[in-house]
Amino acid sequence: MIMTRLFQQTGFPSLAHTPDILWQLALVELRQQMTKTTFNHLLLGSYILIRASTPAFWVIVVRNESAWDWLTYRLFSIVKNTLVGLVEHEVTICFVPKPR
């Protein structure tokens, strides 16, 4: 939310509405909510797969199956609540492990 306010205050709200930028903003917020080790293991290098996503459904690629498992079954609500706070509408998210 801090970064969203910063974009709005600096006159760049349109940049904050693209899914890839919103995901980067979500990562900034999530980094503050987790330990460095947890963030680095689970979310570092993650990205939204634009061609498989819509405004209401986001496919997020994570580094491996372990990160997928943790994010899908243990930290899903934290990520979803952070993302919904940024996009300001309901969004369904789906994590997928990066192909080998």
Which superfamily, in CATH terms, is the homologous superfamily? DnaA, N-terminal domain
The chain-level structural class is alpha+beta
Provide the β-strand percentage band.
5-15%
The CATH topology is GMP Synthetase, Chain A, domain 3
Spatial arrangement of strands, main beta sheet: 1-2-3
Into how many domains do the coordinates divide?
1
Quick check: average pLDDT?
86
Give a short overview.
This protein has 100 residues and is of the alpha+beta class. Helices cover 51% and strands 14% of the residues.
Could you explain how this protein is built, in words?
Helix content is 51%, strand content 14%. A three-stranded mixed β-sheet has the order 1-2-3, covered by helices on one side. 18% of the residues are buried. Helix 2 crosses helix 5. It has one domain: DnaA, N-terminal domain (GMP Synthetase, Chain A, domain 3, 2-Layer Sandwich), CATH 3.30.300. By secondary structure, the chain is α+β, with helices and mostly antiparallel strands. It is globular, with a radius of gyration of 13 Å.
